[in-house]
Amino acid sequence: MDTILSVKNLKKTFDGITAVDGCTLDVEKGTITGLIGPNGAGKTTLFNIITGFYKPDSGEIVFKNKKIDQLPTYKITHQGLVRTFQITKALNRMKVIENLMLSPKKQTGESLIWPIFNPKKVGKEEEEIRDKAMELLEFFDLMELKDEYAGALSGGQKKLLELARALMTDPDMILLDEVFAGVNPTLSNKLLDYIKELRDDGVTFFLIEHDIPLVMEACQEVYVMSEGKVIAKGEPEEIKNDQKVLDAYLGVVHEG
Amino acid sequence: MAIGISYIISLLILFGIYAIFALGLNLEWGFTGILNFGHVAFFGIGAYSTVILNQMGVPIYIAIVAGIIIAGLFGVLVALPAMRLRGDYFAIVTIGFSEIVRYFMLNEEWLTGGPLGLRDFDIPLSFVPSQYYNIAMLILVLALLALTYLILKALINSPWGRVLKSIREDEDVSKALGKNVFRYKIQSIALGSAIAGLAGILLAFNHKYLNPNYYMPLITFYAWIIVILGGSGNNKGTILGALIFWTFMSLTRFSPGYLPISSTDLGALRMVIIGLLLIVLMMYKPEGLLGNKEELKLDI
Amino acid sequence: MIQQLIFGIVTGSIIALGAIGLSMIYDILDLVNFAHGDFMTLGAYLTFLFNVSLNLNLILAAALGIILTGVISLILDKIMWKKLRDKGAGSITLLITAIGLALVIRNLIVFQWGGSNVGFDLPLSQNLNFHGIMISTSGVLTVVVAALLMIALDLILRKTKIGKAMRALSDNKNLARITGINVDNIILWTWGIGTSFAAVGGVLYGLNTVIRPDMGWFLLLPIFAAVILGGIGNPYGAMVGGLIIGISQEMSTIILPSSYKIAVSFVILILVMLIKPEGIFGEK
Ligand SMILES: Nc1ncnc2c1ncn2[C@@H]1O[C@H](COP(=O)(O)OP(=O)(O)OP(=O)(O)O)[C@@H](O)[C@H]1O
Ligand SMILES: [Mg+2]
After folding, report:
1. Which fold has domain A3-90+169-252?
2. pTM above the 0.90 mark?
3. Measured in whole angstroms, how far is the alpha carbon of residue C56 from the centre of its chain?
4. To the nearest whole angstrom, how far is the Cα of C90 from the nearest Cα of chain B?
5. How far apart are alpha carbons C250 and C264 in whole angstroms?
6. Measured by CB atoms within 10 angstroms of the end CB, which terminus of chain C is less buried, N or C?
7. ipTM computed for the complex
């Protein structure tokens, strides 16, 4: 199997707190890989480093055979790696549809010049982008809200919006930070089916999740983090019975 | 009666110039969330550049274009280092920059004429007979206001404007979605400053004279008041705000004859009212007169 | 050289007095108080009112003027700032409101006292001459008063309950709220101390030069520089920052036209922001 993302010995310290402490892991292309661990384990921080929001103190990140650990976030996204935020970040004073239409890469109309000098081309592209956005809105049951301000959505709806927005970038790999939390079970199942479908199309998912049954159902492989380190890795069944994992969740300090 | 009309014309010229000036600020603050408190610097840089170039022999229309571009470039020059700073620091740095520009105008007499300022430069529309000059000026100003408004409208409603708005809302999202936030902010400032430059050039033509005192930080606050009055992020509101603001300014300027009050006192009182207005707006109607309450209650 | 250094220390003391309050208010209220300089002006004019218009002796007049300025800031907190806080207004809303307040204060002063310079009623200031180096008595007074106030502030911060609470709040906002520190109370003390220090600075400025409606505005920019230099929320940093800014401004006159003084403090400010935005004493 092909590795799409490979993290080696990643370290990040915030005034005294080592949030990520020599983390090493690989994510295989075309899989749904899980990342679990107790609160404060460093999962979100790991995502923040992978996507360039923080620079690592040391370590290496390779995505699609390219070193990305020194790249700024927007360039990482251009490589095809996109993330969602644990604490949703809706663009409040923009309409739901605008939130989605923002995403696609390399839009002609994003330059200062073309909207004025080639409005035709920009307009045509906008139509295509809008159609794509509508499809996603339809799927996520957000169609009726398309002209609402994003700030007016409920917490669950914002999660969906966030995911839809990430999908609009046409990524090769998506990092999902607790995207299921707060989404109702029916929708959450539908979402999972959709993710699996995308996976079958070749998109890779790396997801942080506290809902263990969901992780068991969705993932081929699961990493467990605790205190900034990967303490276990394996198929869901193996992980479930791993003593170290149980200890970590119960708060037992582990040596080694 | 004739006095009345020419008075109204000169009021409308000022309205138009300040509307353009404030549209530049609204692009930066209302649409991009950039806290520029040194907007007046670019107003001044545009005006001085055009006049100085013209006095050096550059034909006036070319000097105007050059002045606009130079103002925009100075916007970039300030933003390149300062954009890395937090919003409040950026506000302090830009206000400081505008003061440094003013000190420069005051002190570098060889270039700027110092405290006496500059006069004797070409004025566009000089072919117009002098009794119609003000009307011609008004038409020019309003035409440029309309042009600025239309260009901004096209840009704001384009994907480019969408990226700016996303930066205003939460630049982490813009970054996560692959937008080069820094570049867009620089573009926003460059364009906003160029627009301020245009307004400054028009003001210089209107006064036929330049003086460092026109570029006090207070002028930046005028633009802020205009933008906030109309509702941040609303260009129509900004134009309405400019109209209300200048109507108020000239009504109070017009009244000395009728009120038992000296003109210094009146000027002070006028600024007290403007300050109070700003406070009251921020306390009770931060979304401005044309602002959408729903839209704004979510933030600032 | 030494002459400029002495001027610098005097100017720096005044800037420091302004910087302390601005820094504390910035930190504890999350307010970039663009009206702070105008409180300095207000302090000077109220003192002028008691001293010249009401014929009180200067020390008494200064005490009244300074206290009244502090009281006004408390009233303003009640009628404006508290309401904004309760509405959850963000720091930008507060900043713009402060600009409005600055305009109101400054122009009320112009309205009441006119736009031209005024001065206190005081015996002609003597210049002490040490081998060609001039020090005015008001200059000496400025440095002494500023030093005493800073010592007093240090004692308040370290020894009193309210001072300790202030430092705790400044160090960790969330923790302080949880541990039941009375935040409203601290805010009032912050205003009281911050603005009355500013008023003292304004009065001292008036003693050394003249009183003008825009004096506070022109002091504000160097004060910002001092605050950022010393690190926001660090009163000791503000003191040192004030002195550094004052001294650099005056020293710069050796090589630059003196009208660029303020530009000098600004260049320092920008450099600090870019190189060490947490201030010279701040840790990352
Ligand atoms: N910007 C930051 N500054 C300081 N400390 C931080 C920062 N970001 C994270 N931390 C600290 O790093 C540690 C790891 O946090 P992180 O958010 O990565 O945990 P997590 O595994 O995502 O937890 P949760 O399951 O609760 O989301 C925590 O102790 C957190 O307080
Ligand atoms: Mg997390």
Report:
1. Rossmann fold (3.40.50)
2. yes
3. 25
4. 5
5. 9
6. C
7. 0.91
